[in-house]
Specification:
By secondary structure, the chain is mainly alpha-helical. It contains 5 helices and no strands.
């Protein structure tokens, strides 16, 4: 697979972040920063995004670096909203959206890298333009839209009951 030590560390931390997010989605219907799975997602995604800045097969800034910076911004704003806007129920909408959107953006390089590397020697895809990658990302986008609607409705019910 040809991964550097930083690449291996980045991958392991990233997989843990994704698993934590999925568990949080299943348990809470969102990435909940007050729960251990949400905290793991936040910190491991932060580390994964920071290490992504040190990974590149080309010199200079590339789209992967921009994506990593955007994810850092999204999770940082969500963390701020969670920590500083406790009594503001409207802030929960943005917090939920930013965390879910950061997860969606994380799936772009995850799907691309996984499908272009696994199984070793006979990868599922051959480059980022492969139709399998596009179809998979489309399914993930659809799930994101459905999940965002679900989160919005759930948060609205929570806000009305408080």
């Amino acid at each position: 697979m040809g991964l550097s030590n930083l690449g291996i560390f980045h991958t392991v931390i990233g997989v843990i972040a994704i698993v934590a997010a999925v568990i949080s989605f299943i348990r809470n219907g969102k990435i909940d920063l007050s729960q251990p799975t949400g905290k793991i997602y936040f910190y491991f995604t932060l580390v994964t995004s920071l290490t992504a800045l040190g990974l590149s097969s080309v010199k200079g800034v590339n789209p992967g670096h921009i994506l990593a910076l955007l994810i850092i911004i999204l999770i940082s704003i969500a963390y701020y909203l969670h920590a500083r806007k406790q009594g503001n129920n409207r802030a929960r909408y943005m917090e939920n959206f930013f965390l879910s959107f950061s997860f969606l953006l994380s799936m772009i390089p995850t799907v691309n890298e996984t499908f272009n590397r696994i199984p070793v020697g006979h990868p599922l895809a051959h480059g980022p333009q492969d139709p399998l990658i596009g179809k998979t990302l489309l399914v993930i986008l659809i799930l994101f839209v459905i999940g965002s609607i679900f989160q919005f409705r759930t948060q609205r019910r929570i806000n009305k009951s408080v």
